[in-house]
Design brief:
By secondary structure, this protein is α+β, with helices and mostly antiparallel strands. The chain folds into four domains: 10-129 and 436-608, no CATH class; 191-283, no CATH class; 293-377, no CATH class; 652-838, Super Roll (Bactericidal permeability-increasing protein, domain 1). It is 35% helix and 23% strand. The radius of gyration is 33 Å and the shape is globular.
């Protein structure tokens, strides 16, 4: 029977989780969650204190994802009567994520137990998603500029441009082909794969295996056409080679050998799958699409328009008016660009379950099939194979663009074989290029330590005025709930309160010693559509002991004795009611406080995410795709692909983090190169000091300062293509800068390349990449004096005193993880792998510490 102000500094913890989310590039465009009220509940029964049970509550759908396009907000209001859906529990994603092979009791007090999570169901209008969440082509895609491997075709007429939504990539269309080429064309020469097998010939255990693999690859290259009947046995041999590699890796005598075997085996797997599918396409008869009259096409479009009636937001989201306008467009590429644009919207992974249901209606399925017919396919498969080998060998950006463009074409094919090829490209060449895993131990280490508190008590309970003192404690923890589709975790707050109070009612005053326990919790779920938050739940259990009482009649003989008996009886009659009221009030306060503080923190986190992540990515026209988000019993794991539609993702196996790591981060070089490309430095001319400022603005890094020793008069013009790239391998990150011209007041240097190498450097919890060695210069007509001058400039621009931080500095300096260390820091095969864990020897420049996991 007391009133206590319970201090719950939840914001520190949620801030830590928010920072980890920012670290992993989780970028939902709004994190506004609707928290609804619920009737107060109490639990006076004795129970057992438990962790959050892995039940499935009903959530309120994230507001940001369910909103109509910004440009049609006003038009969406009248649609409520047309499209109503009741949202159940968070919908299960319809496709499996791609694989990635790599409370104590208290004496004399009954424990407490929270019931299963529950929340009311809600009716939500099924409206189209926010349009700016689907990145669309800026202009009509162009054809590939490379030489065609097919017979030359008649020049196409001038193209009309489509008013496509801005803010996205502009993939270059691959060369079209009406059929699989019948002219002889040999299979590609897998130079880079052969070079992966050659070092393995040095080991006795793998000599014959590697030699046989090289022979098979050379035999494949000798085949004269894509449909050669002699190819299938060779592809079967490649499959056997990959299987044998897995066995050899398990018995490898050294880590170097095991890593080399696994990488070569996985490179063989992706070639074998790709080549087999292309061979199957080449040997199948190409079915002719059934011709459809212009009137039939219009009829399908009219049906879709009638379906939505006055639902302007949907019509605008699906661009139905534009489809109607261009349905008779003569240029297939123009119509295909519009069709791909709408198909991406119709198949966005960020659609809610209600929105997906809209697209499963017969009218919409007919429209989707019609749009698929507009997409240009098939492509020039020989060129695709050559581009893949060129990319494997050189990491060429142009080859990457052509491969990505081919994928954007064939992914919509109605032919099963071609759609399967698109899936292989997506899985093996557009895989996640960022992975983060966070252990629950680390989350709980970051929880703020709660100080014991003491508060005054002053409140009215069942007509009695209660006053006194209370002392208590509070503890927080994170509970991870296994989920294969999302991050799912609960925040639990538990506490104990002891009180000494006096309650006065009428002529009597009662003195009590009280003891209570409380527990409050809130469930969070984060997936590719944003964050969903359940209502807070709380339960309290208390007991009190009457230590004495007095009345105004105590001094009167007989009457005092009678009065004390009556007062004691009334006290006993009201004890249960007073306990119930006290517990209910405590539970309500805990729920309201937890809801209020979480909502406040979410709003603050939204501002941080918008400023630090969302806005920079929008400026760069990059949209992180969630490849996988899941929760295990002890880890939060997320894998993302940071890429535009004309980009590729990871295609090599990532380094495996130590099993005892608290935090592990793996970044593939494609994530870095895709971001660098979006800075649009190719062909750009600017002052060197201004370039620093522009880069700081692009990433909202006001803390980045231009080095004082860089002169004001230096102007740099980057090369037209591949001006800035990085490559990660053999324990180092190499930065490549291609310069078209560099000028100062007196001198000008043209057409040269700058290379700088960065090595891992770990000091306690600071994982940095630090420039090592001298600046390398490659170019013609660079005299000794020229090299000295250029090295002086770039040694300042790429200073060794400015390392790249991999681990957030605030996290690295947190006192709760002072006993941890960087226990892995590797750079190999395109990947940078860093992990924090127990103190032990760090893996620095070796290829990998715990081997390599095959990522598919």
């Amino acid at each position: 029977m007391r009133k206590v102000k319970y201090a719950l500094p939840i914001w520190h913890y949620l801030g830590a989780v928010g920072c980890l989310i920012v670290l992993t590039l989780l970028a939902p465009f709004t994190w506004r969650s609707v928290v609804t009220s619920r009737p107060s509940t109490s639990n006076g029964q004795a129970g057992r204190a438990v962790a959050i049970a892995p039940t499935t509550p009903v959530f309120i759908q994230s507001v940001s994802v369910s909103s109509p396009p910004d440009e049609a907000l006003s038009a969406s209001e009248p649609e409520a009567s047309q499209l109503i859906a009741v949202f159940p529990a968070p919908s299960v994603i319809t496709h499996l994520p791609r694989a990635d092979p790599s409370l104590a009791g208290i004496a004399n007090v009954a424990p407490i137990e929270l019931p299963e999570f529950a929340a009311p169901r809600h009716q939500v209008v099924a409206v189209p998603p926010v349009a700016d969440r689907v990145q669309l082509p800026v202009r009509t895609p162009e054809r590939t500029s490379g030489p065609s491997l097919l017979a030359s075709s008649v020049a196409a007429p001038a193209k009309r441009s489509i008013p496509v939504s801005s803010g996205s990539d502009s993939p270059v269309l691959p060369q079209r082909a009406e059929a699989i080429p019948k002219t002889p064309h040999g299979w590609p020469n897998a130079v880079s794969l052969i070079e992966q097998f050659r070092p393995l010939q040095r080991f006795d255990e793998t000599q014959s295996w590697a030699a046989h693999a090289i022979t098979v690859l050379e035999d494949v290259h000798r085949q004269k056409s894509l449909s050669s009947n002699d190819l299938l046995p060779l592809l079967d041999e490649m499959s056997i080679v990959a299987q044998q590699g897995s066995v050899l890796a398990e018995n490898a005598s050294s880590q170097e050998m095991r890593t080399g075997i696994l990488r070569a085996a996985y490179a063989t797997v992706r070639r074998e799958l790709l080549w087999r599918q292309v061979h199957q396409i080449a040997t199948d008869d190409v079915p002719k699409n059934a011709s459809r009259s212009s009137q039939e096409t219009k009829d399908r479009l009219d049906a879709a328009r009638i379906k939505f009636g006055n639902a302007a937001a949907w019509r605008k989201y699906l661009r139905l008016d534009e489809i109607q306008e261009y349905c008779e467009e003569a240029d297939a590429d123009v119509r295909a660009a519009l069709a791909r644009d709408v198909l991406v919207r119709m198949n966005s992974p960020k659609l809610t379950s209600a929105q997906r249901d809209v697209f499963q209606q017969p009218v919409m399925l007919d429209l989707e099939r019609e749009l698929r017919r507009w997409v240009v396919e098939p492509i020039a498969y020989p060129q695709l194979l050559d581009d893949i080998e060129l990319y494997e060998q050189t990491r060429s950006a142009e080859a990457a663009h052509r491969i990505a463009a081919s994928y954007q074409v064939i992914r919509w094919s109605e032919r099963e074989n071609i759609a399967k090829l698109a899936e292989i490209l997506d899985v093996h060449y557009r895989n996640a290029n960022l992975r983060v895993a966070v252990r629950d131990d680390l989350l709980n280490r970051l929880l703020p330590q709660q100080d014991d508190f003491e508060e005054e008590v002053d409140e009215n309970i069942v007509g009695a005025q209660v006053f006194g003192n209370a002392q208590g404690t509070a503890h927080m923890r994170t509970v991870l709930i296994p989920d294969q589709r999302s991050w799912r975790f609960g925040l639990e707050v538990e506490g104990e309160v002891e009180s000494q109070t006096a309650a006065t009612r009428g002529p009597a005053t009662f003195y009590n010693d009280g003891y209570s326990r409380y527990q409050a919790r809130k469930l969070f779920q984060i997936d590719q559509r944003g964050m969903q938050v359940s209502d807070s739940e709380a339960v309290a259990n208390m007991r009190s002991e009457l230590t004495g009482f007095r009345t105004l009649f105590d001094s009167l003989p007989i009457l005092g004795w009678v009065a004390r008996g009556i007062v004691r009886q009334q006290h006993d009659d009201h004890t249960e009611m007073a306990r119930w009221v006290s517990e209910t009030r405590l539970e309500t306060k805990m729920r309201e406080r937890l809801d209020r503080e979480v909502q406040l923190q979410l709003e603050e986190t939204q501002v941080i995410v918008e400023k630090k992540i969302t806005a920079p990515l929008q400026r760069l026209e990059l949209d992180p795709d969630v490849i996988e988000m899941r929760t295990t019993e002890d880890r939060l794991i997320a894998r993302y692909r940071l890429a535009g539609k004309n980009h590729l993702g990871a295609f090599t196996p990532r380094p495996q983090a130590p099993s005892d790591s608290m935090l592990s981060v793996q970044v593939h070089e494609t994530m870095l190169n895709n971001t660098l490309e979006k800075l649009r430095l190719d062909g750009r001319r600017t002052k060197l000091r201004q370039l620093y400022r522009d880069l700081a603005d692009a990433f909202d890094r006001s803390d980045l300062e231009v080095p004082d020793d860089i002169p004001e008069n230096i102007t740099v013009q980057f090369a037209e293509v591949n001006s800035v790239r990085v490559h990660c391998d053999k324990g180092k990150l190499t930065l490549f800068l291609k310069i078209a011209e560099l000028k100062n007041r007196r001198n000008s240097w043209r057409h040269f390349e700058v290379r700088a190498e960065y090595l891992p450097d770990s000091t306690r919890l600071h994982a940095n990449l630090v420039r090592d060695g001298v600046i390398q210069l490659i170019g013609k007509r660079l005299s000794f004096g020229d090299q000295i001058a250029l090295r002086t400039i770039f040694s300042r621009a790429l200073s060794k005193k400015q390392p790249f931080n991999i681990i957030n500095r605030k996290l690295a300096e947190h006192p709760a993880i002072a006993d941890l260390n960087v226990n892995q820091f590797v750079i190999a095969d395109g990947w940078i792998g860093v992990s924090l864990g127990p103190n032990r020897v760090v893996a620095g420049t070796v290829p990998a510490e715990n081997g390599t996991t095959v990522v598919r």
